[in-house]
Automatic annotation (TrEMBL):
Protein name: Calcium:proton antiporter
Segments crossing the lipid bilayer: 12-29, 35-55, 67-90, 102-123, 135-156, 168-187, 220-238, 250-269, 290-313, 319-341, 348-365
Short name of one Pfam family: Na_Ca_ex
Lineage: Bacteria, Bacillati, Actinomycetota, Actinomycetes, Micrococcales
Source species of the chain: Fodinibacter luteus
Keywords: Membrane, Transmembrane, Transmembrane helix
């Protein structure tokens, strides 16, 4: 029997937390803060993440799948791009690989981390989890193509020394990324929407939480506003915390590039929690929509934006992955294909993806 969850209810706390977080952001932005304030900001950051998840679920419950997953994926990615540009403007030469590290981390977190956690939660509770292989397979193919064009090709092209595109190559990658992402969105939301709906035990498409009362249109719009406020608070407070994160990374003897991984983990935390909640309700397709959509948006929206921003940013844009990262990306794509093609998965597939995610984290800390 499919578990059906009641529609999420918005209490006053879920509206107060984003506002308080934004006030704290305004009070701490651009200032040196002590350890006590760092701890307070960390708690507010966690609260903003939980608020973002709640409001995203309200919106998703109102509009249904796959639009609900798309709302959170695009909102998080747009603000993630803003964070990358901000850090590149203030980071100087050492920020040249920040975009690469953050985008690659986003792909590994979504395709291995979020997907693995979702499969593990779903399979532990329901045995074998089921999803639509046609929709998820198309999404995976899009992610693999975007990652190859934007993150692998700069390493092997000859126009510029090092892992960089020429201006013309970067323009092509930007247009190709945006075009492919737009084509996927049309496929997901218009032409083949049924490919991305949750499926029953027999494989028939379901409507998300079809037996729960959906929120009103007014409640959905209010939650959309608070979702955006929460996401701004998440990314802004992550930026405020970044000096403490950098100091902690250096003090722990980790490479500076690991900062990009930490930032990606923070920014994608709302989607991770939302995907886990969906898997707990036997809506693994929703979890996969979030995972693949986030990976796709992280590349398809980030690269075009950075291509335009690079006109004004003096820092070189080094997008090409190293040999270790290319190997991890290749095995991730192969394993994901084998996971997606049958349209069902068990704890074994979850364990494989989580092992790859652990390998990524370990090699990011000890390259």
């Amino acid at each position: 029997m499919t578990a059906v969850a009641a529609g999420p209810r918005t209490t006053l706390a879920w509206r107060v937390i984003p506002v308080v977080s934004l006030v704290a952001l305004a009070a701490t932005w651009g200032r040196d803060i002590g350890i006590v304030v760092v701890v307070v900001v960390a708690f507010l950051l966690a609260g903003a993440v939980l608020a973002a998840v709640h409001h995203a679920e309200v919106v998703a419950h109102r509009v249904g799948e796959p639009f609900g997953s798309l709302v959170l994926a695009v909102a998080v990615t747009v603000i993630e791009v803003s964070l990358i540009v901000t850090l590149m403007l203030s980071g100087g030469e050492k920020a040249a690989t920040l975009a690469r590290e953050t985008v690659f981390a986003a792909v590994m977190i979504t395709v291995n981390g979020i997907l693995g956690i979702s499969l593990l939660i779903g399979s532990r509770r329901f045995g074998t989890v089921r999803f639509n292989a046609e929709g998820t397979g198309g999404a995976l193919a899009t992610v693999a193509t975007l990652a190859t064009v934007c993150l692998v090709l700069p390493t092997v092209t000859l126009g510029e020394p090092g892992p960089e595109f020429t201006a013309g190559q970067l323009a092509f990658a930007a247009v190709a990324s945006l075009s492919l992402y737009a084509a996927f969105v049309v496929t997901q939301t218009v032409r083949h929407r049924d490919f991305f709906l949750p499926v029953s035990r027999k494989g028939a498409p379901l409507t998300e939480d079809e037996h729960a009362d959906p929120p009103t249109t007014r409640e959905a719009y209010v939650s959309l506003v608070f979702l955006l406020l929460s996401l701004v608070a998440v990314v802004g407070l992550a930026k405020v915390e970044s000096p403490a994160i950098e100091e902690g990374v250096v003090a722990a003897g980790l490479p500076v590039s690991f900062v990009g991984v930490v930032i990606a983990l923070l920014v994608l935390l709302p989607e991770t929690i939302a995907a886990a909640n969906a898997a707990r309700r036997d809506r693994v397709q929703t979890s996969l929509n979030l995972a693949m959509g986030s990976a796709m948006a992280s590349i398809g929206l980030t690269i075009p934006t950075l291509a335009v921003a690079s006109i004004w940013i003096p820092t070189p844009l080094k997008l090409g992955l190293g040999a270790t990262q290319i190997v991890l990306l290749a095995i991730t794509v192969v394993v994901a294909v084998l996971t997606v093609v049958p349209g069902r998965a068990t704890r074994l597939q979850a364990s494989v993806h989580l092992t790859l995610f652990a390998a990524f984290l370990f090699l990011a800390m000890s390259p």
